[in-house]
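ok new one. same drill as before - structure tokens go in, u give me an amino acid for every spot. 162 of them this time. try not to just spam alanines like last time pls lmao
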């Protein structure tokens, strides 16, 4: 009889189950926002990497031609990326400035790129809405040629933007 009573008492009580559910809820409340911030940070790296590529190619062009690549008329890619990414396009090769910069993006991307160049200065901008909330973040590449040496710097948006 004692064995039968002990077998009936095995298991979890309602209080124990509620405590476990509460702990899981607290962990989810902390982990999900941290994960979303991590995802947003990983998406932001695209802009800095692509602007760095533009800067390197524009420096090579400046060394060869004593001027930066002339202004591009196109902000590429065209359209809006929300809710998906920009699709791969061949429009980069059709624009003289982007072709001179030897710049194209061969995979779906999140940012739209604009380039303005001249003899001694150039600017490239990467703008994108990473979470489709209507708020765009902007990275800016500024190139100058002090003393005939091409130099560039990338400015990032504030840490809590978008």
């Amino acid at each position: 009889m004692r064995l039968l009573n002990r077998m009936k008492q095995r298991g979890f009580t309602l209080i124990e189950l509620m405590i476990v559910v509460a702990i899981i809820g607290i962990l989810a409340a902390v982990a999900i926002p941290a994960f979303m911030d991590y995802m947003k940070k990983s998406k932001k790296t695209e802009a800095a990497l692509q602007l760095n590529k533009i800067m390197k190619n524009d420096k090579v062009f400046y060394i060869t031609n004593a001027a930066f690549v002339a202004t591009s008329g196109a902000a590429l890619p065209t359209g809006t990326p929300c809710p998906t990414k920009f699709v791969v396009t061949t429009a980069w090769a059709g624009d003289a400035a982007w072709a001179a910069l030897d710049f194209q993006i061969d995979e779906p991307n999140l940012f739209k790129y604009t380039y303005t160049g001249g003899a001694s200065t150039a600017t490239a901008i990467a703008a994108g809405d990473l979470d489709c909330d209507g708020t765009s973040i902007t990275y800016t590449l500024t190139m100058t040629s002090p003393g005939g040496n091409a130099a560039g710097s990338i400015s990032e948006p504030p840490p809590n933007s978008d």
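The radius of gyration is 26 Å. and btw The CA atoms of residues 69 and 100 lie 7 Å apart.
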